[in-house]
């Protein structure tokens, strides 16, 4: 007997087009991108500089408007929402991890982690809090301020802050860009673990083939189009694909 597992798609883009500026100054950053991101999976977006990675992520996350096409998160078409609805959707369904950790300096690690839930007026689920803290390995640092933590620990706080509201998807933009390779590897391992153990969905933009190799799948952009993808990537298969794209 064979069993089939249904792969749910957390985020879908159809015909996604983004043009900055007008007339002679127009920049076609995305030229009709069709892509889906599986739920409970870790997907990396790569491509040469200027290929449209950040633009794609910003459009997928509702941080930027699209020129044409559709983006759906779960069962909501976000390209049809007004600003107020988008703000709510980002708060309730989307988590972010940026290159700069964006922690509030006067709050402890624990207070930073809990802040988005407090702003949303939602209760923390103690069991989830314990699991998240366990997953990112921060138990003994909860009372520390960001300035008392290493860069890697600060980024782990930022990852925990994104995980704690159980968003449908976390978008990570170069999350290891400010970290040395050891701290970067730690943060990537925690992202990986949060997918495997907490069923989190993660979409990450990165320049680094090593970072991309932590993902389940890597999609590649060139000149605003999705041109290739690699399943179960290794640093070498990612590098080979990138070099072929840049050739
Ligand atoms: N606000 C903007 N106004 C005008 N052009 C923009 C704007 N943002 C991005 N672009 C242009 O859109 C194209 C795609 O940029 P984007 O930042 O998405 O690429 P990227 O792949 O993330 O690049 P990098 O790897 O260098 O960060 C580039 O040509 C860029 O110059």
From TrEMBL:
Q: Extract the GO molecular function terms from the UniProt entry.
A: ATP binding; ATP hydrolysis activity; transmembrane transporter activity
Recorded protein name is: Putative ABC transport system ATP-binding protein
Give the source species: Microbispora rosea
Instruction: Enumerate the spans annotated as ABC transporter domain.
Output: 11-247
Keywords associated with the record: ATP-binding, Nucleotide-binding, Transport
What PROSITE patterns does UniProt report for this protein, alphabetically? ABC_TRANSPORTER_1, ABC_TRANSPORTER_2
PANTHER family registered for this protein in UniProt: ABC TRANSPORTER RELATED, IMPORT ATP-BINDING PROTEIN
Judging by the UniProt lineage, the source's domain of life is Bacteria
Record's Gene Ontology CC terms? membrane protein complex; plasma membrane
